[in-house]
Amino acid sequence: MIDGPNMYAYVRNNPITFVDPWGWCKKTGWWPRWLNLIVPGYRNYGGPSRSGPLLPEDLLDAAFQRHDIGYREGNLDFADLQLLNDLSNLPPDPRNWGEGVNPIYARLYRKSAFIIFATRQTIRQGTKELERLEYLAV
C-alpha cells in the first residue's frame, strides 16, 4: 500500500455506481434516501423508489421501466445509455406518449432525467478513463 489504503474497495472501486451507507455491504444506487422526499416521481417507474410492479402508463414510463430492469440485471452502463436513447427517441409532443399525459410536466421530467443520466454517464466514463490511466501509469 504505497499510497495508503484503497478508500473505495468497499464499493468495488466504483463510488459512482455503488453505495455502502452503513458499511455492511455495497448496493447499487447513488440515490440518497432523503432525496425520495423532494424528488417527484413520474407515473409507475420514473423517479426514486419507483419500480412497478404495475404496467407502464405511457412511453416515458416504459423507458424508465426498461432502465429499472437493466439495473436489476446489473447492466448499469447499458441501462443508462438505453434510457438516454429512449428519451431522445420519444415523440416531440408528450401528448403522443399515451393517454392522460400532462405535457408540461412530462416534457420537464424528460428533460431533467436526460440531464441527470447524461451527467452521470459522463462522470462514469471519466472515472473509467482515470482508472485506465492509473493502470497505465503503474
Number of helices: 3
Mean pLDDT: 78
Largest sheet: 2 strands, antiparallel
The secondary-structure element order is EEHHH
Shape: elongated
Low-pLDDT parts are none
Rounded to the nearest angstrom, the radius of gyration is: 17 Å
Percentage beta strand: under 5%
Task: Walk across the major sheet and give the strand order.
Answer: 1-2
Class per helix and strand makeup: mainly alpha
Descriptive report:
The chain is mainly alpha-helical and 138 residues long. The chain folds into 2 domains: 1-30, no CATH class; 41-137, no CATH class. Helices cover 46% and strands 3% of the residues. It has 3 helices and 2 strands; from the N terminus they run ββααα. A two-stranded antiparallel ribbon has the order 1-2. α1 packs antiparallel against α2 and α2 (76-89) runs antiparallel to α3. The longest helix has 35 residues, at 103-137. The chain is elongated and about 60 Å long. The model has no long low-confidence stretch (mean pLDDT 78).
